[in-house]
Amino acid sequence: MDNSIFLAKFWGWYLLIFFFILTFNPRRSKQIIKDLHDEKFLIMASFISIIMGLLNILFHNIWEFNYKLLITLIGWTSLFIGLSLFVIPKNAVAALQIINIKLVQVIYALLFFTGLFLLNIAYRIILI
Predict the structure, then answer these.
(1) Is residue 15 part of a domain?
(2) Which tens digit of pLDDT belongs to each residue from 1-12?
């Protein structure tokens, strides 16, 4: 299986699952931000984000202007957030908290539509 299709499936399902978890349990989003103030949780979250981002970039660092760019940007974003949480934790947590409060609806919509778009690419549900 092509790396791009595999990662489109992975990130598509991941984003949709995360969207539904946050939609049906909105307190979970606030709980994640609250837990980032715990140093152990913060370190684990940053390591997981760094690993996911780095693996994504190593297997898929394609800068073509199509769905492959979206997958690459997801990997770079994951790596950047993980490194920020690890290197400058207080600033990163404060920024994530502000983003979560002000842009929560936009984030939910992006999770949903990006997940649907990637799954559509991977499974060819609707031919675009």
Answers:
(1) yes
(2) 689 999 999 999
Q: What is the DSSP letter of 62?
A: -
Is the distance from CB of 70 to CB of 126 less than 8 angstroms? no
Could you give the number of structural domains in the chain? 1
Question: Taking a C-beta distance cutoff of 8 angstroms, is the pair 69, 63 a contact?
Answer: yes
Q: Which domain holds residue 16?
A: 3-123
Quick: pLDDT tens for 53-79: 999 999 999 999 999 999 999 999 999
pTM of the model: 0.88
In this structure, which amino acid lies at residue 113? F
- Distance CA(45)–CA(35), nearest Å, equals 10
Please indicate, yes or no, if residue 128 is contained in any of the structural domains: no
- Is the CB of residue 21 less than 8 Å from the CB of residue 30? no
Contact (Cβ atoms closer than 8 angstroms) between residue 11 and residue 71: yes
Q: Which of 49, 68, 82, 80 is nearest to 7 (CA)?
A: 68
